[in-house]
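Q: What residues go here?
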């Protein structure tokens, strides 16, 4: 419905905004993380990685681990 469309638009805005922000490797880490509350019941985690911080294989491992941890948390199980 309308709430989902608003949440998706907000997430797209956050992704575009973060994508325009260059990394300053002299002053910050090559990984950025943002937890965004899109509405009362929707949240998103945005991870932005500089290419020196990860490769395609490593990103898959990282996302798999984050998914496993989230699923355990959501089910009330220890991770």
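A:
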């Amino acid at each position: 419905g309308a709430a989902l469309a608003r949440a998706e638009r907000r997430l797209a805005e956050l992704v575009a905004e973060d994508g325009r922000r260059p990394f300053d490797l002299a002053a910050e880490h090559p990984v950025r993380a943002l937890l965004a509350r899109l509405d009362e019941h929707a949240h998103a985690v945005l991870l932005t990685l500089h290419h020196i911080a990860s490769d395609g294989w490593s990103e898959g491992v990282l996302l798999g681990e984050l998914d496993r941890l989230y699923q355990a948390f959501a089910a009330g199980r220890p991770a």
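A: Context that may help when evaluating the design: DSSP finds two helices and two strands in the chain. The first strand starts at residue 31 and ends at 39.
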